[in-house]
Amino acid sequence: MRLLVLKHFSFDDASVILTWARERGCPVERFEPPSGLPFPPPDSFDLLVILGGPMSVTEEDRHPWLKTEKAFLREAIRCGKRVLAICLGAQMLAEVLGGRVYRNREKEIGWHPVRRTEARHPLLGGLPEVFWTFHWHGDTFDLPEGAVHLAYSDATRNQAFAWGDRLLGLQFHLETTPECMKTMTEAWAGELVPGRWIESAGEILGKASRCADSALYLRGILDRILAAHAEERAAG
């Protein structure tokens, strides 16, 4: 299974995904939409992974490449590609499928628990009913028509959704590494203001050991995507 990973800011760390891909023998291409370069062709990948970013998907005037990326995502969906969309990626996926993206009532930054809904989906088969994960977002979205609501938190109702068996959106960050988290708290320190769902840099970094569990959850999701892809290919 060939991966295409879209990265939206310089110090984002996809090492959990890249390590998994290397161990599974899956080729990976990395691409940065803000570069303005042409996107890779859809026939060059099987799984599209869209990472997060500090921008909002509604800021097309400030970031014209967002419009191009949305068009690319629509084409990938039309071509039947599998998509794993994280944070900004999940918001973009929701919008492309017809959902609305807007400011959440409060920002959610730090380590907060996420709860699964009663809906079951094979891609989340290995996740606990309640798990701790890292968050850094101020936007949220309405579920697009036909989506299955899979997870929520106290601050954000729509934390995960699936649309069919190929498209998965996760508002939270299972991919976060301690190194990236530390850089985020430094580069975006201005966002760490007192709030119900905003932790301090010390609180965030003091829980960095939780990244190990998050990585295991993400690897499990990727394993299930890979198994579905392999099964489909074997069936012809």
Description:
- With 236 residues, the chain is an alpha/beta fold.
- It has a single domain, classed as 3-Layer(aba) Sandwich (Rossmann fold), CATH 3.40.50.880.
- The protein has six helices and nine strands, in the order βαββαβαβββββααα.
- A nine-stranded mixed sheet has the order 2-1-3-4-9-8-7-5-6, with helices on both faces.
- α1 links the parallel β1 and β2.
- The two termini are 15 Å apart.
- The mean pLDDT is 97.
Summed up:
This protein is an alpha/beta fold and 236 residues long. It has helices at residues 15-24, 65-78, 88-96, 178-187, 201-206, 211-234; strands at residues 3-6, 28-31, 47-50, 82-86, 101-116, 130-141, 148-152, 160-163, 167-170.
pLDDT averaged residue by residue: 97
Integer-rounded radius of gyration:
17 Å
Counted up, domains total 1
What is the level-2 CATH architecture name?
Answer: 3-Layer(aba) Sandwich
CATH structural class? Alpha Beta
**What name goes with the CATH superfamily?**
Class I glutamine amidotransferase (GATase) domain
The general outline is globular
Which parts are unreliable, with pLDDT below 50 for 5 consecutive residues or more? none
**Major sheet: size, sense and barrel closure?**
9 strands, mixed
* CATH fold-level label: Rossmann fold
Question: What is the terminal-to-terminal distance?
Answer: 15 Å
* Binned strand content: 15-25%
Q: So how many helices? A: 6
Overall number of strands: 9
Order of helices and strands: EHEEHEHEEEEEHHH
Helix content range: 25-40%
Q: Give the class from helix and strand content and strand pairing.
A: alpha/beta
Lateral arrangement of strands in the main beta sheet: 2-1-3-4-9-8-7-5-6
